[in-house]
Design brief:
- Helices cover 83% and strands 0% of the residues.
- By secondary structure, it is mostly helical.
- The chain has 2 domains: 85 residues, Rna Polymerase Sigma Factor, Chain: A (Orthogonal Bundle), CATH 1.10.1740; 70 residues, Arc Repressor Mutant, subunit A.
- The longest helix is centred in the middle third of the chain and has 36 residues.
- It is elongated, with a radius of gyration of 23 Å.
- The chain starts with a helix and ends with a helix.
Amino acid sequence: MSDRDDLARIISGCKAGRHESFSQLVDMYASRCYGFFYRLTGNRDVSDDLLSELFLRLVEKIGSFKGGSFDSWLFKIAANIFHDYLRSKYLRQKLLQGRKNLLEEQTAETKTAHSEEIDNLQIQLAKLDADTRESIMLRFYSQLSFREIAAMRSEPIGTTLSKVHRGLKKLRRMME
């Protein structure tokens, strides 16, 4: 039996939900995929996380493999996971830079009264649920468009608009 036949048998087992087939697939590809991620990130922890994400997606998507080169199919998923990681890293950096810029803009003379308002805002923001708080922060601190936020969160733009609107309304009430 050839390597290609073995791989086809293992993939069939995965599609049938056999755990031992998934284990064999992980054994076959873990080191290559880890190396792929490590060469892209240069970070062992991030590479481990991306590898875990890859194998979770593999379990979810194995049924969509319709034949052809399994390596190409698998590494396309790996590349997509890496791109998702880069997007989220970029957005986090943008969020942190926005916060840093805001803090740097505060001058010593406006820091007194203005500082109390900002402190109160921080306290009230912390009271919002994490999902709403994140949407508001992405919109106003990171200055992302509603469309960008919706795409990043894989949700309809109406949902994003609604979360931000409801969150701001609640924040206004809490600030009064």
